[in-house]
Specification:
It holds the Pfam family Phosphodiest. The chain has about 550 residues and is of the alpha/beta class. The chain is about 30% helix and about 20% strand.
Amino acid sequence: MKLLIIGLDGATLDIIEPLVKAGKLPTFASFMKEGAWGKLKSTVLPVSPPAWTSFMTGKNPGKHGVFGFFTNLPRQYKTRLVTASDVKAKPFWEFFKPDQRIGLVEVPMTYPPKPINGVMISGMIVPSHLKIFTYPSSLHTELIRELGDYPIDRWLQEYIQKADPIEGLKALYYYTSFRQKAALYLIEKKGPFDFFMVVFRGTDFVQHYAFKFLDKDYTSKHPEEEDKFGEVIYQFYERMDVYIAELIQKVGKDCTVIIMSDHGGGPLKKYFYINRWLIKEGYLKLKKEAKKRQIKVRKRPLERVFKRLHLEHFLPASLKRVKLPLPCVVEYPPEELVDWENTKAYANLVWTDGVIRINLKGREPYGCVNEKEYELFKDEIKEKLLSLVDPETGKPFIEAVYKREEIYHGPYVKDAPDLLIITKDIEYAFKIDLIEDKFLETPTNPSPATHRMDGIFFIKGPTVCEGRELNNLNITDIAPTALYLMGCEVPKDMDGRIIKEAIKEEYIKQHPIVFSKKEDQKEITAATTFSEEEIAEIEKELKSLGYMG
């Protein structure tokens, strides 16, 4: 095997470096001593779908068209989930030589799977275990026969939500160990491969769940939880260190190995209700009846009411079917609460990243901002956001506001949000709620954690420099670097660069870099659609991680 890439979703040097110094991560320590390593800059914004897509295409989102978990429907205020069908550029493995065999396990943004010269288990946004998420399709049945039922992301999130924390962590370890078993099985039974990649999303899951146990503000109030769970993240990284060592042993010492993440992670401090702020500024208008529509009186069976209170044993059988009128919150589609004809700007109404869209005439169905005032209006919002101050700290909490054309370039910039917002150290997460007035809030339970701009990059192998710390790395750099290490031509239209400073000069002299003159002309396929039930499944998973609502 020429190249093995191991992805650790959300992994951060903030955890790895202290553990290496403490002697807890011998495999990572060997990469720092015998290879090259550094921080890897993610996409703006540091969200998994655009970040992983930029990783595999070597391009910024303006060239591949993926900007978040959801994409806006043309001339509508509604959105839908993205899939691999929305990626408008080729992944780097499609530029391999025809005889080079490929193995992919759980690489995000590969569902639905497509034919490759090898095998694939799709990763992330896989709606149901009943769907075929492997190539070839027969591999699905083989994995179940040889390894047992394949636990997809949805299984894990559902288990964690129902179980107590200890059982949830057991489920996470089982879910992760299954990916390791699948990777080792494929390498042994389906090889030989020239290129293999496996992604472990458990690092991101455990951080979303457990970063609060590293937060002194939280653990000072909950010391018993710190005693139980204070080491959870560290222990998970230690397990990953062992898994990485097993994979390296399996592929052999002559193989070049890359370990990377799509973004980093860190604790959450506060929520910024961006739509509430837009309402306060007069940019977003709600229908007059919006607040009233949130509450309705509905008849509920007494049996259900008593069950929720864990008092069902005290309810006589004769009263179980009696219905009681009770007030309840009714969830309407958020786009139905907005007075669009008088709204000038709005944040996403479904997912929680820091983006703002202008209600532009001719583009949105009820656009009211003219093309002439578009630029000045964006400047106005940007200036106001940058001047926002957290009343508790007295300091600004918005680090940067970008116009889409300032950070993206390519044919799909027109599909990007108009403004993108980065909070201070990304410790302030975005919330999308429309009702209520308060737009800054300290969560009572600081979970889930948030992402960070800096992911990780480690590389080791016979052609790699030893003990070298790398700087100015971008997630788009891995694709052209991988192609070079595979002995393939590198497409000129990739935005990333070959990380030459990690590779021995002698090797580069003997193997000159060759750029392809061919342009990436991917055939655009119809977007994959999910059923309402499947969408509900995936949205539950995203909500549990803090990406929605």
